[in-house]
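Please check this:
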Amino acid sequence: MMKTIPRLLLVAAIALSAHAASAETLRVGKAGREAFSFVPLDIGVRSGIFTRHGLDVEISNFGGDARLQQAMAADGVDISLGSGPGLAFIVKGSPVKGIAAMAGPPLLFALVVRNDDSVKTVDDLKGRKIGVSTVGSVTSWIISEVSRQRGWGFDGITQVPIGENAARVAAVRSKALDGGIVDLASALNFVQRGEGRILLRFGDLVKDFHIHVIFATDKIIAERPQALRGFLAGWFETIGLMRRDKQKSVAIAADVMGTDTATAAGIYDELMPMFSDSGRFNPKALAVLRRSFVEMKTLSEEPDMSRLYTEAFLPKP
């Protein structure tokens, strides 16, 4: 019996090594490091889900959609977790396509301001400088939509592209900016440190929307379609795991976002409803995006949205 156990362990080790050797590497970029929206990628990796689908996922973090799209154009990543407004980059020549609608309404973001009463209400935002991640990002779209809904036009609030959440928070703290659009974890940490407050949440801003989309490069679409199918199968398996196992999901989320367990649990409760279980694109959400590209002057005319995405790699219902 004593000889059998080491032999079994050796066989298991050989099997694991063979599996690791056969795993296909996918380079996946996230538009933000701390955002809960992108935590499913870390959970899928740490839970071994992507490994079971024959994939070795390498994660990189970027400060917004523009930088993420640049990395894809330079063949620095194969797949990216970006924003719905990021679909406009394809019209401008980005060699990518949307392959899954990842999340719906913009529940993730909040607008934070200092506690010094320099900005007391939403009406005080007109003409103020508000930090966003990059031009053409979902944070850029959100502040433009706030301005439009207040009757100030899409440029009634001055946008300042400043990269990562931490950089936006630091700029608000130092008074370089009047406020910043940041993810909920960053906003809550800002409030807990006594440095400011949340002025706006955006769950009711618009109901039909794709806050996040999963993109793939044209190169990987053409050359490695099975890897894309495996990735999306692993992604939606991870979403299912997150819905079933809050405790495990929150533990990993707290570590990734750099926050405490209680805060991560609250964010989980608020944001899990935004995730899609199927990845299918919503025609009404696409119509909102199509109009916004022109209203925000991102594009000169409304594009044919059907050319910007594909559902060919989604798991079959």
Observations:
- The first strand starts at residue 24 and ends at 30.
- The chain is about 45% helix and 20% strand.
- The first helix runs from residue 4 to 22.
